[in-house]
Design brief:
alpha/beta; five-stranded mixed beta sheet; 6 helices; about 25% strand
């Protein structure tokens, strides 16, 4: 069974999981926010040390590819690419929204025809959203959506839809008017990447380490500095 290191820095949560096959053997996580650059490498070092696994024993690195925080994604992906380059191992990309759906699937009893709709907060009433079935197969690709009355009406007419992720709570008042809408707030975590990463490893679904880039969802716009003399 391969040792795979999974990294998620797509939100305010920073987490690292080491797995051997389907078994999680070590894990680190914090929700401090804005500390990813400082803690990610120590987390990786501590995780490997706890499991008594040398970096050279890793057979792949999996990373959350977005959408998500611009800075967080850059830190996670650049770290994962650096490890893959130095160790000569493959890079596995896992969609952030699929990780959210995987966590909710573990936390909530599933019904066969239920759909999972992970939502990532994108300010105001906008979210990044996708939709998966209970086998985590994508049935609606991710996009930026402004949530309003009538959102997801077609899916809700035919299925129970479990809205999850850090963007779901702000949509509850609007979406809960439909009896088929359910909600879960299980936080995103690298520990929920393990099975997805293993499946991609077995299918040899690897990324080009040189050219792989995060999926931001929106074009990054830098804030204009307010410090005198800098503009």
């Amino acid at each position: 069974m391969p040792y795979i290191l999974s990294i998620d820095t797509s939100t305010e949560i920073c987490s690292v999981a080491l797995s051997k096959g389907t078994e999680q053997v070590a894990f680190r996580e914090t929700a401090e926010g804005r500390s990813h650059a400082k803690i990610l490498l120590p987390f990786i070092e501590e995780t490997l040390k706890e499991a008594a696994v040398a970096p050279e024993q890793l057979q792949a690195v999996a990373v959350s590819m977005g959408p998500g925080s611009y800075t967080g994604l850059r830190i996670g992906v650049s770290t994962a690419k650096g490890l893959c380059f130095s160790l000569g191992i493959p890079l596995i990309a896992v969609p952030t929204l699929q990780i959210m759906a995987a966590g909710t699937r573990k936390a909530v009893p599933m019904e066969p025809e239920m759909l999972l709709c992970p939502m990532l907060d994108a300010r105001r009433m906008e979210v990044f959203a996708a939709m998966y079935n209970v086998d985590l197969q994508e049935v609606m690709p991710f996009s930026a959506k402004i949530i309003e009355e009538g959102s997801f009406a077609e899916a809700l007419a035919e299925h129970k839809v479990l809205f999850c992720g850090n963007g779901a709570e702000k949509c509850r008042e609007i979406l809960s008017k439909n009896a088929n809408a359910c909600f879960d707030h299980t936080p995103i975590s690298a520990r929920n990447m393990v099975e997805i990463a293993l499946q991609k490893f077995e299918n040899q679904q690897f990324e080009d380490v040189a050219y792989c880039e995060p999926i931001y969802g929106k074009e990054y716009v830098a804030a204009k500095p307010n410090v005198k003399g800098l503009h």
